[in-house]
Amino acid sequence: MPNNANNPELKSWLEVSTQSDFPIQNIPFGVFLTNNNMVTIGTRIGDYAIDLGALHQLGYFKDIELTEDVFLQDTLNDFISAGKKTWRLVRNRISEIFSDSNPKLRDNAKHRKQIIFEIDEVEMQLPVAIGDYTDFYSSKEHALNLSRIFSGKQDDLSAKWYHYPLAHNGRSSSIIPSGIPIHRPKGQVLKKEEDLPTYGPSQSLDFELELGFITTDVNSLGESVPVNQTEDYIFGVTLFNDWSCRDMQRWECMPLGPFLSKNFACSLSPWIVTLDALEPFKVKGVKQEPKPLPYLQMKDNYLYDIHLEVSITPEHKVPTIVSRTNYKNAYWNMNQQLCHHTANGCKINSGDLLSSGAISGNVPGSYGSMIEITNNGETPIKLNDGSLRSFIQDGDTITFKGYCKNEKIRIGFGDLTTTILPVHER
Description:
By secondary structure, this protein is of the alpha+beta class.
């Protein structure tokens, strides 16, 4: 089936800035609360939110097999379960409706009033009901940096890191949408040169710059999915912040792994950008040595050329960009991660979230976490207001941005923002 919505020559009759993350070639999916307190599934073009529930009720999808209420829900899970063919049909139809050559909706003022909202009129929600969440460890540079910081050795990665994508199971109940603040967490810390841990607020609160990907129903329990078929089961990609407390994490991670240091919150951007929209930005993946086992070998090992950046904004101050990097530098790709996840027959459901792990480049300024940027706090960075940061302070707002760009189009994810509040005292 052709992917017509990706035509770089398409223009919309809605006004779209050339710097917008959301041209007509994007057509992401999300969930929002309208100004009349209705929750609906929608998409976005430029600075306009489009109510797909209203669009469906008014007959604009009448020849596509969709249930009557598929867009009248508070999550995308059922739509995601409909599968890749339906996603593409709907996305192609949306691009037809909003193409500047199509007058059907453009010239119908009554329908436009029901369907189209200015983006400031809506309140974005968490786009999916996330049943399960798995956090991978896909960036070799990030893994090497943390290994150096924690062990003091320059290249101390376990040999198994190069044989399969490592991961741990996260906590889906703590995943929140962009714009929701979080309180500084508390936990146990073992301070240097002390024999017993103490309990209190984390002093090393950190972000992790990641991408998340959302799955449809993948397999039956006990069934493994071949790596070259995994793309059909990935609905789309979001920005993702896996918040981490490094002082708590260091105490927890031997011998088992992170627990309270990571399960208190993760932040997810509200618009899911489909793999169809990212298709023009595929790039060859990095060389994997040693060669993965046959079940992880792809016919076409690829990643996506996604520019990523992080900024810190102190309370009532100006932002400072502290990292710029790119997903194309990742070692393990999302296809291999999904394949390995099902290798033992683990069941993957619609709306499950798998994340990349922190994405880092190989030079200063391209690191995906503060522990790398400041060398575990030993080399604080100066922000634009003159203040110093070793880790994240109360009142700071962390903003992630991500986009793909070529000579004709720009496809972006919007912003992912979270503000840190003081410890919550009950």
